[in-house]
Amino acid sequence: MKKEYLDWHLRDEAAQGFMKGAAEPSQWPHVSECNTAKGMWDTWKKIHVDNQQNINVHYSFEELYTKKYVDGTPIADHIAKMLDIRNRIIAAGEELPDIHVARALVLSLPKTQTWELIKIQLFGLDKLTSEIVSTKLQAEANRRTREKSSTETALHTNSGKKSKKGKGKSNESSKGPQPDDVCRYCKGTGHWANKCPRREEDEKTKRGGGESSNLAVGNLRNLGTREVGQVYMALRGISSATADVLLDCGASAHMFCDQGHFRSYTANEGNETISVGDARDVPIAGTGSVEMRCRLPDGIRTVVLHGVLHVPKLAANLVSLGTLQRAGAKHHSHEEGIIVTLGADELFRASFPTSTATLYYINLVQREAAFAVVASGSMRVWHRRLGHLHLDAIRAMARKKLVSGLDITSSKEYDHVCEGCVLGKSHRLPFPKTSSTVYSKMELVIMDITGLMSVETWTGRAYAMVVIEASRHFGVGRLLAKKEEVASTLKDVVTMLERQSGLKLKKMCSDNGTEFVNSIVESFCRRNGILHETTVPYAPEQNGIAERSIKTYFEMVRCMLHSAKMDLRYWGEAFMYVVHIRNLSPTSAL
Q1: What are phi and psi for residue 158, nearest 5 degrees?
Q2: Domain 221-362 annotated CATH 1.10.287
Q3: DSSP letters spanning 531-560
Q4: What is the DSSP string of 419-466?
Q5: What are the residue ranges of CATH 3.30.420.10 in the chain?
Q6: What was the pLDDT predicted at 1?
Q7: In this predicted model, what pLDDT tens digit does every residue of 340-374 receive, in sequence order?
Q8: Among residues 55, 145, 461, 492, which is most buried (max CB within 10 A)?
Q9: Any idea what DSSP says for residue 47?
Protein backbone atom coordinates (compact mmCIF):
# COMPACT_ATOMS: atom_id res chain seq x y z
CA MET A 1 0.00 0.00 0.00
CA LYS A 2 2.85 2.35 0.87
CA LYS A 3 4.51 1.68 -2.49
CA GLU A 4 1.28 2.38 -4.37
CA TYR A 5 0.89 5.64 -2.47
CA LEU A 6 4.45 6.66 -3.26
CA ASP A 7 3.93 5.86 -6.95
CA TRP A 8 0.71 7.89 -6.97
CA HIS A 9 2.42 10.75 -5.13
CA LEU A 10 5.29 10.86 -7.65
CA ARG A 11 2.87 10.84 -10.60
CA ASP A 12 0.78 13.55 -8.98
CA GLU A 13 3.83 15.75 -8.40
CA ALA A 14 4.87 15.22 -12.01
CA ALA A 15 1.38 16.21 -13.16
CA GLN A 16 1.51 19.33 -10.96
CA GLY A 17 4.87 20.28 -12.43
CA PHE A 18 3.63 19.74 -15.98
CA MET A 19 0.49 21.82 -15.38
CA LYS A 20 2.43 24.59 -13.69
CA GLY A 21 4.98 24.69 -16.49
CA ALA A 22 2.24 24.90 -19.13
CA ALA A 23 0.41 27.75 -17.36
CA GLU A 24 1.36 31.42 -17.37
CA PRO A 25 3.21 32.60 -14.24
CA SER A 26 0.33 34.98 -13.52
CA GLN A 27 -1.92 31.94 -12.93
CA TRP A 28 0.29 30.34 -10.28
CA PRO A 29 -1.00 32.35 -7.28
CA HIS A 30 -4.45 30.85 -7.83
CA VAL A 31 -3.16 27.33 -7.09
CA SER A 32 -0.53 28.11 -4.47
CA GLU A 33 -2.55 26.31 -1.77
CA CYS A 34 -3.45 23.27 -3.90
CA ASN A 35 -1.72 20.03 -2.92
CA THR A 36 -2.86 17.78 -5.79
CA ALA A 37 -3.06 18.02 -9.55
CA LYS A 38 -6.84 17.56 -9.40
CA GLY A 39 -7.14 20.48 -7.00
CA MET A 40 -5.14 22.67 -9.39
CA TRP A 41 -7.32 21.61 -12.31
CA ASP A 42 -10.58 22.25 -10.44
CA THR A 43 -9.39 25.68 -9.26
CA TRP A 44 -8.37 26.83 -12.71
CA LYS A 45 -11.56 25.41 -14.23
CA LYS A 46 -13.68 27.36 -11.77
CA ILE A 47 -11.83 30.59 -12.54
CA HIS A 48 -11.60 30.38 -16.33
CA VAL A 49 -14.55 28.22 -17.39
CA ASP A 50 -17.34 28.51 -14.88
CA ASN A 51 -16.87 32.24 -14.23
CA GLN A 52 -16.63 32.97 -17.94
CA GLN A 53 -19.86 31.06 -18.60
CA ASN A 54 -21.58 33.13 -15.93
CA ILE A 55 -20.42 36.30 -17.67
CA ASN A 56 -21.34 35.12 -21.18
CA VAL A 57 -24.88 34.23 -20.18
CA HIS A 58 -25.68 37.89 -19.51
CA TYR A 59 -24.60 38.84 -23.02
CA SER A 60 -26.67 35.96 -24.40
CA PHE A 61 -29.76 37.39 -22.70
CA GLU A 62 -28.98 40.78 -24.22
CA GLU A 63 -28.59 39.23 -27.68
CA LEU A 64 -31.88 37.34 -27.29
CA TYR A 65 -33.92 40.48 -26.67
CA THR A 66 -32.11 42.82 -29.10
CA LYS A 67 -31.59 40.63 -32.17
CA LYS A 68 -33.68 41.81 -35.15
CA TYR A 69 -34.86 40.04 -38.27
CA VAL A 70 -33.82 41.71 -41.53
CA ASP A 71 -36.71 41.63 -43.97
CA GLY A 72 -35.92 39.75 -47.17
CA THR A 73 -33.52 37.25 -45.55
CA PRO A 74 -34.50 33.59 -44.89
CA ILE A 75 -36.76 33.45 -41.82
CA ALA A 76 -35.57 29.90 -41.06
CA ASP A 77 -32.03 31.16 -40.49
CA HIS A 78 -33.30 33.83 -38.09
CA ILE A 79 -35.35 31.30 -36.10
CA ALA A 80 -32.35 28.94 -35.90
CA LYS A 81 -30.13 31.75 -34.53
CA MET A 82 -32.71 32.67 -31.87
CA LEU A 83 -33.08 29.04 -30.77
CA ASP A 84 -29.28 28.70 -30.65
CA ILE A 85 -29.14 31.64 -28.22
CA ARG A 86 -31.78 29.93 -26.09
CA ASN A 87 -29.74 26.71 -26.02
CA ARG A 88 -26.60 28.60 -24.92
CA ILE A 89 -28.46 30.21 -22.04
CA ILE A 90 -29.91 26.89 -20.88
CA ALA A 91 -26.50 25.18 -21.22
CA ALA A 92 -25.05 27.77 -18.83
CA GLY A 93 -27.48 26.60 -16.14
CA GLU A 94 -29.94 29.50 -16.37
CA GLU A 95 -33.71 28.99 -16.38
CA LEU A 96 -35.41 30.40 -19.47
CA PRO A 97 -39.18 29.93 -19.74
CA ASP A 98 -40.37 29.21 -23.26
CA ILE A 99 -42.74 32.23 -23.19
CA HIS A 100 -39.70 34.55 -23.13
CA VAL A 101 -38.26 32.90 -26.24
CA ALA A 102 -41.61 33.21 -28.00
CA ARG A 103 -41.92 36.91 -27.13
CA ALA A 104 -38.35 37.57 -28.25
CA LEU A 105 -39.09 35.93 -31.62
CA VAL A 106 -42.17 38.10 -32.13
CA LEU A 107 -40.47 41.33 -31.04
CA SER A 108 -37.53 40.69 -33.37
CA LEU A 109 -39.76 41.17 -36.43
CA PRO A 110 -39.47 44.45 -38.41
CA LYS A 111 -41.83 47.34 -37.71
CA THR A 112 -43.62 47.19 -41.06
CA GLN A 113 -47.34 46.98 -41.76
CA THR A 114 -47.39 43.33 -42.80
CA TRP A 115 -45.24 42.14 -39.91
CA GLU A 116 -47.19 44.24 -37.38
CA LEU A 117 -50.32 42.31 -38.38
CA ILE A 118 -48.48 39.05 -37.73
CA LYS A 119 -47.41 40.34 -34.29
CA ILE A 120 -51.01 41.24 -33.36
CA GLN A 121 -52.23 37.79 -34.39
CA LEU A 122 -49.54 36.03 -32.35
CA PHE A 123 -49.99 38.12 -29.21
CA GLY A 124 -53.72 37.46 -29.42
CA LEU A 125 -53.27 33.70 -29.00
CA ASP A 126 -54.32 32.11 -25.70
CA LYS A 127 -51.12 30.09 -25.53
CA LEU A 128 -47.90 31.44 -27.00
CA THR A 129 -44.92 29.10 -27.40
CA SER A 130 -41.72 29.28 -29.42
CA GLU A 131 -42.86 26.33 -31.53
CA ILE A 132 -46.14 28.07 -32.45
CA VAL A 133 -44.34 31.30 -33.31
CA SER A 134 -41.73 29.47 -35.42
CA THR A 135 -44.44 27.58 -37.32
CA LYS A 136 -46.42 30.79 -37.98
CA LEU A 137 -43.38 32.72 -39.19
CA GLN A 138 -42.27 29.90 -41.47
CA ALA A 139 -45.79 29.65 -42.92
CA GLU A 140 -45.78 33.39 -43.64
CA ALA A 141 -42.39 33.09 -45.34
CA ASN A 142 -43.65 30.20 -47.49
CA ARG A 143 -46.74 32.23 -48.46
CA ARG A 144 -44.57 35.12 -49.63
CA THR A 145 -42.37 32.76 -51.62
CA ARG A 146 -45.40 31.28 -53.44
CA GLU A 147 -46.67 34.74 -54.36
CA LYS A 148 -43.44 35.69 -56.07
CA SER A 149 -43.67 35.79 -59.82
CA SER A 150 -40.95 33.85 -61.55
CA THR A 151 -41.38 35.59 -64.90
CA GLU A 152 -42.25 39.21 -64.06
CA THR A 153 -41.13 41.89 -61.61
CA ALA A 154 -42.34 45.40 -61.05
CA LEU A 155 -39.06 46.82 -62.29
CA HIS A 156 -38.36 45.05 -65.57
CA THR A 157 -40.45 43.07 -68.09
CA ASN A 158 -39.12 40.80 -70.81
CA SER A 159 -41.35 40.25 -73.81
CA GLY A 160 -39.66 36.96 -74.72
CA LYS A 161 -39.55 37.84 -78.41
CA LYS A 162 -36.43 37.71 -80.52
CA SER A 163 -35.07 40.90 -82.03
CA LYS A 164 -35.36 41.38 -85.80
CA LYS A 165 -31.83 42.87 -85.78
CA GLY A 166 -32.86 45.98 -87.79
CA LYS A 167 -34.24 44.00 -90.74
CA GLY A 168 -37.88 45.02 -90.41
CA LYS A 169 -40.48 42.30 -90.79
CA SER A 170 -38.62 40.30 -93.39
CA ASN A 171 -36.78 37.16 -92.34
CA GLU A 172 -34.80 36.96 -95.58
CA SER A 173 -31.57 38.92 -95.43
CA SER A 174 -30.89 38.52 -99.18
CA LYS A 175 -33.59 41.03 -100.19
CA GLY A 176 -31.82 43.99 -98.51
CA PRO A 177 -33.42 46.73 -96.38
CA GLN A 178 -37.08 47.58 -96.93
CA PRO A 179 -38.56 51.10 -96.80
CA ASP A 180 -40.14 50.51 -93.41
CA ASP A 181 -37.06 48.86 -91.78
CA VAL A 182 -35.79 50.71 -88.72
CA CYS A 183 -32.06 51.33 -88.15
CA ARG A 184 -30.95 50.22 -84.69
CA TYR A 185 -28.28 52.95 -84.56
CA CYS A 186 -29.99 56.20 -85.57
CA LYS A 187 -33.62 54.97 -85.42
CA GLY A 188 -34.13 56.10 -89.02
CA THR A 189 -35.97 54.07 -91.72
CA GLY A 190 -34.96 52.61 -95.07
CA HIS A 191 -31.53 51.29 -94.08
CA TRP A 192 -29.80 48.96 -91.64
CA ALA A 193 -27.29 49.77 -88.88
CA ASN A 194 -24.33 48.27 -90.79
CA LYS A 195 -24.88 50.83 -93.61
CA CYS A 196 -26.03 53.74 -91.42
CA PRO A 197 -24.57 57.06 -92.70
CA ARG A 198 -24.66 58.60 -89.22
CA ARG A 199 -22.77 55.66 -87.80
CA GLU A 200 -20.06 55.97 -90.44
CA GLU A 201 -19.65 59.69 -89.68
CA ASP A 202 -19.36 59.00 -85.94
CA GLU A 203 -16.73 56.31 -86.50
CA LYS A 204 -14.68 58.65 -88.70
CA THR A 205 -14.82 61.29 -85.97
CA LYS A 206 -13.63 58.79 -83.36
CA ARG A 207 -10.68 57.65 -85.54
CA GLY A 208 -9.60 61.10 -86.69
CA GLY A 209 -6.35 62.73 -85.45
CA GLY A 210 -5.54 59.99 -82.94
CA GLU A 211 -8.10 61.41 -80.48
CA SER A 212 -9.71 59.28 -77.76
CA SER A 213 -12.86 57.30 -78.38
CA ASN A 214 -14.86 59.94 -76.51
CA LEU A 215 -13.93 62.87 -78.76
CA ALA A 216 -17.48 63.20 -80.05
CA VAL A 217 -18.68 63.65 -76.50
CA GLY A 218 -15.86 66.02 -75.61
CA ASN A 219 -16.75 68.32 -78.51
CA LEU A 220 -20.33 68.70 -77.31
CA ARG A 221 -21.23 71.92 -75.55
CA ASN A 222 -21.61 71.77 -71.76
CA LEU A 223 -25.15 72.89 -70.98
CA GLY A 224 -24.57 73.24 -67.23
CA THR A 225 -25.93 71.49 -64.17
CA ARG A 226 -29.52 71.35 -62.94
CA GLU A 227 -30.59 69.96 -59.57
CA VAL A 228 -34.08 68.52 -59.45
CA GLY A 229 -36.19 68.25 -56.28
CA GLN A 230 -35.48 65.58 -53.76
CA VAL A 231 -35.16 61.96 -54.78
CA TYR A 232 -35.01 58.59 -52.99
CA MET A 233 -32.29 56.13 -53.98
CA ALA A 234 -31.42 52.44 -53.77
CA LEU A 235 -27.93 50.78 -53.72
CA ARG A 236 -26.46 47.37 -54.55
CA GLY A 237 -22.92 47.42 -53.26
CA ILE A 238 -20.11 48.87 -55.37
CA SER A 239 -20.54 48.61 -59.11
CA SER A 240 -19.56 50.48 -62.25
CA ALA A 241 -21.12 53.80 -63.14
CA THR A 242 -22.32 52.71 -66.56
CA ALA A 243 -25.47 50.74 -65.63
CA ASP A 244 -28.67 51.58 -67.53
CA VAL A 245 -31.04 54.14 -66.04
CA LEU A 246 -34.76 53.74 -66.76
CA LEU A 247 -37.46 56.40 -66.70
CA ASP A 248 -40.36 54.80 -64.82
CA CYS A 249 -43.82 56.31 -64.42
CA GLY A 250 -44.83 53.63 -61.88
CA ALA A 251 -42.05 54.14 -59.33
CA SER A 252 -43.02 56.15 -56.26
CA ALA A 253 -39.46 57.43 -55.74
CA HIS A 254 -36.07 57.59 -57.46
CA MET A 255 -34.35 54.27 -56.74
CA PHE A 256 -30.87 53.25 -57.87
CA CYS A 257 -29.15 49.91 -57.58
CA ASP A 258 -25.79 51.21 -58.81
CA GLN A 259 -23.63 53.01 -56.26
CA GLY A 260 -21.33 54.35 -58.95
CA HIS A 261 -23.89 57.04 -59.85
CA PHE A 262 -23.91 58.57 -56.36
CA ARG A 263 -22.12 61.80 -55.65
CA SER A 264 -22.92 61.72 -51.91
CA TYR A 265 -24.35 58.95 -49.76
CA THR A 266 -25.59 58.36 -46.21
CA ALA A 267 -26.07 54.80 -44.96
CA ASN A 268 -29.43 53.86 -43.45
CA GLU A 269 -29.07 52.67 -39.86
CA GLY A 270 -32.69 51.51 -39.46
CA ASN A 271 -34.71 48.66 -40.95
CA GLU A 272 -36.65 50.68 -43.52
CA THR A 273 -38.06 48.80 -46.49
CA ILE A 274 -39.95 49.60 -49.68
CA SER A 275 -42.60 47.42 -51.36
CA VAL A 276 -42.20 46.38 -54.99
CA GLY A 277 -44.71 44.99 -57.45
CA ASP A 278 -44.37 41.32 -56.50
CA ALA A 279 -45.40 42.04 -52.88
CA ARG A 280 -41.83 41.85 -51.59
CA ASP A 281 -40.44 44.27 -49.01
CA VAL A 282 -36.84 45.02 -49.96
CA PRO A 283 -34.51 46.86 -47.55
CA ILE A 284 -33.32 50.44 -48.17
CA ALA A 285 -29.56 50.70 -47.69
CA GLY A 286 -29.34 54.49 -47.61
CA THR A 287 -30.03 57.79 -49.33
CA GLY A 288 -27.93 60.24 -51.28
CA SER A 289 -27.54 62.40 -54.39
CA VAL A 290 -27.12 61.01 -57.91
CA GLU A 291 -25.32 62.77 -60.75
CA MET A 292 -26.22 61.91 -64.36
CA ARG A 293 -24.53 63.26 -67.49
CA CYS A 294 -27.29 63.24 -70.06
CA ARG A 295 -26.74 63.43 -73.83
CA LEU A 296 -28.81 66.08 -75.63
CA PRO A 297 -28.79 67.03 -79.34
CA ASP A 298 -26.84 70.25 -78.68
CA GLY A 299 -24.61 69.24 -75.75
CA ILE A 300 -24.41 67.52 -72.37
CA ARG A 301 -26.61 68.29 -69.38
CA THR A 302 -25.51 67.32 -65.87
CA VAL A 303 -28.60 66.45 -63.79
CA VAL A 304 -28.34 66.00 -60.00
CA LEU A 305 -31.13 64.16 -58.17
CA HIS A 306 -31.28 64.56 -54.38
CA GLY A 307 -32.57 62.18 -51.71
CA VAL A 308 -32.32 59.02 -53.84
CA LEU A 309 -33.10 55.70 -52.10
CA HIS A 310 -30.59 52.85 -52.21
CA VAL A 311 -32.40 49.50 -52.59
CA PRO A 312 -29.81 46.73 -53.03
CA LYS A 313 -32.12 44.11 -54.56
CA LEU A 314 -33.47 46.14 -57.48
CA ALA A 315 -32.70 44.97 -61.01
CA ALA A 316 -32.31 48.44 -62.55
CA ASN A 317 -31.76 52.11 -61.77
CA LEU A 318 -35.14 53.91 -61.78
CA VAL A 319 -35.88 57.61 -62.18
CA SER A 320 -39.44 58.32 -61.06
CA LEU A 321 -41.36 60.45 -63.56
CA GLY A 322 -43.96 61.26 -60.92
CA THR A 323 -41.32 62.52 -58.49
CA LEU A 324 -39.82 64.72 -61.20
CA GLN A 325 -43.25 66.17 -61.98
CA ARG A 326 -43.80 66.90 -58.27
CA ALA A 327 -40.52 68.82 -58.30
CA GLY A 328 -41.72 71.05 -61.16
CA ALA A 329 -40.45 69.12 -64.18
CA LYS A 330 -42.61 68.56 -67.26
CA HIS A 331 -42.52 65.96 -70.00
CA HIS A 332 -43.87 65.43 -73.47
CA SER A 333 -43.63 62.66 -76.04
CA HIS A 334 -41.94 62.76 -79.42
CA GLU A 335 -41.27 60.20 -82.11
CA GLU A 336 -38.21 58.70 -80.37
CA GLY A 337 -39.39 58.76 -76.77
CA ILE A 338 -39.92 61.29 -73.95
CA ILE A 339 -38.35 64.70 -73.33
CA VAL A 340 -38.19 65.97 -69.71
CA THR A 341 -37.79 69.73 -69.07
CA LEU A 342 -37.47 71.98 -66.04
CA GLY A 343 -38.53 75.52 -66.82
CA ALA A 344 -36.88 76.53 -70.09
CA ASP A 345 -34.09 73.93 -69.78
CA GLU A 346 -34.22 70.46 -71.24
CA LEU A 347 -33.05 67.94 -68.63
CA PHE A 348 -32.75 64.67 -70.55
CA ARG A 349 -34.31 62.44 -73.16
CA ALA A 350 -35.48 58.85 -72.73
CA SER A 351 -35.93 56.56 -75.72
CA PHE A 352 -36.33 52.92 -76.75
CA PRO A 353 -32.96 51.18 -77.26
CA THR A 354 -34.38 48.78 -79.88
CA SER A 355 -37.31 48.68 -82.22
CA THR A 356 -39.10 46.10 -80.04
CA ALA A 357 -38.29 47.58 -76.62
CA THR A 358 -41.03 49.07 -74.41
CA LEU A 359 -38.92 50.56 -71.63
CA TYR A 360 -37.60 54.14 -71.70
CA TYR A 361 -33.81 54.33 -71.26
CA ILE A 362 -32.30 57.71 -70.37
CA ASN A 363 -29.58 58.73 -72.86
CA LEU A 364 -26.41 59.02 -70.75
CA VAL A 365 -22.85 59.93 -71.68
CA GLN A 366 -20.12 57.41 -70.83
CA ARG A 367 -17.18 58.42 -68.67
CA GLU A 368 -14.52 60.36 -70.55
CA ALA A 369 -11.44 58.79 -69.02
CA ALA A 370 -10.70 55.61 -67.15
CA PHE A 371 -8.76 57.48 -64.49
CA ALA A 372 -10.77 60.69 -64.38
CA VAL A 373 -12.44 61.83 -61.18
CA VAL A 374 -15.99 62.97 -61.89
CA ALA A 375 -17.02 64.81 -58.73
CA SER A 376 -15.61 67.92 -57.11
CA GLY A 377 -15.46 68.56 -53.39
CA SER A 378 -13.86 70.42 -50.54
CA MET A 379 -10.40 69.77 -49.17
CA ARG A 380 -12.01 67.74 -46.38
CA VAL A 381 -13.80 65.50 -48.93
CA TRP A 382 -10.68 64.99 -51.07
CA HIS A 383 -8.61 64.24 -47.97
CA ARG A 384 -10.95 61.31 -47.25
CA ARG A 385 -11.29 60.19 -50.89
CA LEU A 386 -7.53 59.93 -51.27
CA GLY A 387 -7.06 57.69 -48.24
CA HIS A 388 -6.24 60.54 -45.80
CA LEU A 389 -3.28 61.67 -47.89
CA HIS A 390 -1.44 64.65 -46.42
CA LEU A 391 -2.79 68.02 -47.55
CA ASP A 392 0.33 69.31 -49.31
CA ALA A 393 0.25 66.35 -51.69
CA ILE A 394 -3.44 66.97 -52.50
CA ARG A 395 -2.75 70.65 -53.22
CA ALA A 396 0.19 69.66 -55.45
CA MET A 397 -1.95 67.17 -57.37
CA ALA A 398 -4.62 69.81 -57.98
CA ARG A 399 -2.10 72.52 -58.90
CA LYS A 400 -0.15 70.33 -61.35
CA LYS A 401 -3.34 68.75 -62.84
CA LEU A 402 -2.06 65.26 -62.06
CA VAL A 403 -5.62 63.89 -61.71
CA SER A 404 -8.31 64.75 -64.21
CA GLY A 405 -11.33 66.11 -62.36
CA LEU A 406 -9.65 66.86 -59.02
CA ASP A 407 -11.40 70.15 -58.34
CA ILE A 408 -11.28 71.62 -54.82
CA THR A 409 -14.47 73.68 -54.73
CA SER A 410 -14.39 75.18 -51.24
CA SER A 411 -11.59 76.57 -49.07
CA LYS A 412 -8.30 74.83 -49.67
CA GLU A 413 -7.26 75.31 -46.07
CA TYR A 414 -8.21 72.32 -43.95
CA ASP A 415 -8.90 73.88 -40.56
CA HIS A 416 -10.47 70.82 -38.93
CA VAL A 417 -8.87 67.99 -36.98
CA CYS A 418 -9.34 64.73 -38.89
CA GLU A 419 -10.47 62.14 -36.37
CA GLY A 420 -9.41 59.27 -38.64
CA CYS A 421 -5.85 60.62 -38.88
CA VAL A 422 -5.68 61.20 -35.13
CA LEU A 423 -6.67 57.60 -34.41
CA GLY A 424 -4.89 55.94 -37.32
CA LYS A 425 -1.58 57.85 -37.49
CA SER A 426 -0.88 58.53 -33.82
CA HIS A 427 2.21 56.95 -32.30
CA ARG A 428 4.06 57.10 -29.04
CA LEU A 429 7.04 59.42 -28.83
CA PRO A 430 10.37 57.75 -27.97
CA PHE A 431 11.52 57.83 -24.37
CA PRO A 432 14.56 60.03 -23.61
CA LYS A 433 17.82 58.12 -23.56
CA THR A 434 19.01 59.85 -20.38
CA SER A 435 17.28 61.29 -17.34
CA SER A 436 18.20 64.59 -15.68
CA THR A 437 16.35 63.78 -12.45
CA VAL A 438 18.59 63.81 -9.37
CA TYR A 439 17.50 61.65 -6.42
CA SER A 440 18.59 62.01 -2.83
CA LYS A 441 19.71 59.03 -0.79
CA MET A 442 16.88 56.53 -0.09
CA GLU A 443 14.40 58.74 -1.94
CA LEU A 444 13.58 56.00 -4.45
CA VAL A 445 14.24 52.29 -4.94
CA ILE A 446 13.40 50.50 -8.19
CA MET A 447 12.64 46.80 -8.28
CA ASP A 448 12.00 44.09 -10.86
CA ILE A 449 12.03 40.31 -11.15
CA THR A 450 13.20 38.05 -13.94
CA GLY A 451 11.07 35.53 -15.72
CA LEU A 452 11.14 31.82 -14.99
CA MET A 453 14.64 30.49 -15.62
CA SER A 454 14.99 27.46 -17.87
CA VAL A 455 17.34 25.82 -15.35
CA GLU A 456 16.87 25.92 -11.58
CA THR A 457 19.79 26.37 -9.20
CA TRP A 458 21.09 23.56 -7.01
CA THR A 459 18.83 24.83 -4.24
CA GLY A 460 15.69 24.96 -6.42
CA ARG A 461 15.69 28.73 -7.10
CA ALA A 462 14.06 29.73 -10.40
CA TYR A 463 13.76 33.55 -10.17
CA ALA A 464 16.10 36.45 -9.51
CA MET A 465 14.84 39.67 -7.89
CA VAL A 466 16.72 42.98 -8.18
CA VAL A 467 16.26 46.09 -6.02
CA ILE A 468 18.18 49.24 -7.07
CA GLU A 469 18.65 52.35 -4.89
CA ALA A 470 18.26 55.19 -7.43
CA SER A 471 20.70 57.80 -6.05
CA ARG A 472 23.80 55.53 -6.05
CA HIS A 473 22.56 52.67 -8.26
CA PHE A 474 23.36 50.32 -5.38
CA GLY A 475 21.90 46.93 -6.21
CA VAL A 476 20.54 44.16 -4.02
CA GLY A 477 19.91 40.71 -5.50
CA ARG A 478 17.81 37.87 -4.14
CA LEU A 479 17.10 34.35 -5.42
CA LEU A 480 13.50 33.09 -5.18
CA ALA A 481 11.86 29.71 -5.64
CA LYS A 482 8.51 31.21 -6.66
CA LYS A 483 6.99 34.62 -7.23
CA GLU A 484 4.87 34.40 -4.08
CA GLU A 485 8.07 35.08 -2.10
CA VAL A 486 8.47 38.58 -3.60
CA ALA A 487 6.43 40.42 -0.92
CA SER A 488 8.29 38.95 2.10
CA THR A 489 11.68 39.35 0.38
CA LEU A 490 10.90 42.97 -0.47
CA LYS A 491 10.16 43.73 3.19
CA ASP A 492 13.53 42.25 4.23
CA VAL A 493 15.44 44.23 1.58
CA VAL A 494 13.77 47.55 2.49
CA THR A 495 14.48 46.94 6.19
CA MET A 496 18.12 46.16 5.43
CA LEU A 497 18.59 49.29 3.27
CA GLU A 498 16.96 51.54 5.87
CA ARG A 499 19.08 50.11 8.70
CA GLN A 500 22.36 50.32 6.75
CA SER A 501 21.73 53.87 5.46
CA GLY A 502 20.09 55.25 8.59
CA LEU A 503 17.35 56.81 6.40
CA LYS A 504 13.73 55.93 5.78
CA LEU A 505 12.60 54.96 2.27
CA LYS A 506 10.25 57.47 0.61
CA LYS A 507 9.18 55.88 -2.69
CA MET A 508 9.54 52.66 -4.59
CA CYS A 509 8.76 51.95 -8.25
CA SER A 510 7.84 48.69 -10.00
CA ASP A 511 5.86 47.42 -12.96
CA ASN A 512 2.23 46.29 -12.68
CA GLY A 513 2.98 42.62 -12.05
CA THR A 514 0.83 40.96 -9.41
CA GLU A 515 3.94 40.02 -7.45
CA PHE A 516 4.41 43.74 -6.67
CA VAL A 517 0.82 45.01 -6.88
CA ASN A 518 -1.04 43.07 -4.21
CA SER A 519 -2.60 43.56 -0.79
CA ILE A 520 0.54 42.53 1.14
CA VAL A 521 2.84 45.09 -0.52
CA GLU A 522 0.09 47.74 -0.38
CA SER A 523 -0.37 47.18 3.37
CA PHE A 524 3.41 47.34 3.96
CA CYS A 525 3.72 50.64 2.07
CA ARG A 526 0.70 52.19 3.82
CA ARG A 527 1.95 51.15 7.25
CA ASN A 528 5.43 52.63 6.67
CA GLY A 529 4.37 55.74 4.72
CA ILE A 530 6.04 54.60 1.48
CA LEU A 531 4.66 55.75 -1.88
CA HIS A 532 4.38 52.89 -4.37
CA GLU A 533 4.56 54.07 -8.00
CA THR A 534 3.88 51.76 -10.95
CA THR A 535 4.78 52.14 -14.61
CA VAL A 536 2.30 52.63 -17.42
CA PRO A 537 1.21 49.28 -18.95
CA TYR A 538 3.35 48.18 -21.92
CA ALA A 539 6.02 50.80 -21.09
CA PRO A 540 9.01 48.94 -19.58
CA GLU A 541 11.15 51.98 -20.44
CA GLN A 542 9.75 53.74 -17.37
CA ASN A 543 11.39 51.05 -15.24
CA GLY A 544 14.58 51.32 -17.27
CA ILE A 545 17.11 51.33 -14.42
CA ALA A 546 15.97 47.93 -13.14
CA GLU A 547 15.52 46.48 -16.64
CA ARG A 548 19.00 47.58 -17.69
CA SER A 549 20.55 46.33 -14.45
CA ILE A 550 19.07 42.84 -14.95
CA LYS A 551 20.39 42.81 -18.52
CA THR A 552 23.87 43.81 -17.39
CA TYR A 553 23.91 41.33 -14.51
CA PHE A 554 22.98 38.33 -16.63
CA GLU A 555 25.35 39.27 -19.45
CA MET A 556 28.13 38.98 -16.89
CA VAL A 557 26.63 35.74 -15.50
CA ARG A 558 26.60 34.10 -18.95
CA CYS A 559 30.16 35.20 -19.64
CA MET A 560 31.38 33.77 -16.34
CA LEU A 561 29.62 30.42 -16.74
CA HIS A 562 30.68 29.87 -20.37
CA SER A 563 34.30 30.91 -19.85
CA ALA A 564 34.63 28.68 -16.77
CA LYS A 565 32.63 25.86 -18.42
CA MET A 566 30.52 25.60 -15.29
CA ASP A 567 27.19 23.80 -14.92
CA LEU A 568 24.30 26.16 -15.66
CA ARG A 569 22.79 25.34 -12.27
CA TYR A 570 25.45 27.62 -10.75
CA TRP A 571 23.82 30.72 -12.26
CA GLY A 572 22.43 31.71 -8.84
CA GLU A 573 25.87 31.92 -7.21
CA ALA A 574 27.24 33.77 -10.25
CA PHE A 575 24.34 36.24 -10.10
CA MET A 576 24.92 37.09 -6.43
CA TYR A 577 28.65 37.55 -7.12
CA VAL A 578 27.93 39.85 -10.10
CA VAL A 579 25.64 42.07 -8.01
CA HIS A 580 28.41 42.44 -5.43
CA ILE A 581 31.03 43.22 -8.10
CA ARG A 582 28.82 45.86 -9.74
CA ASN A 583 28.29 47.62 -6.42
CA LEU A 584 32.08 47.99 -6.08
CA SER A 585 32.66 49.07 -9.69
CA PRO A 586 32.39 52.59 -11.16
CA THR A 587 29.31 53.44 -13.24
CA SER A 588 28.66 56.25 -15.73
CA ALA A 589 25.27 56.94 -14.09
CA LEU A 590 27.12 58.56 -11.18
Answers
A1: -105, 130
A2: no
A3: EEEEPPTT-GGGGHHHHHHHHHHHHHHHHH
A4: HHHHHHH--PPPPPSS------TTSEEEEEE----SS--TT---EEEE
A5: 444-584
A6: 55
A7: 888 888 888 888 888 777 888 888 886 544 344 44
A8: 461
A9: I
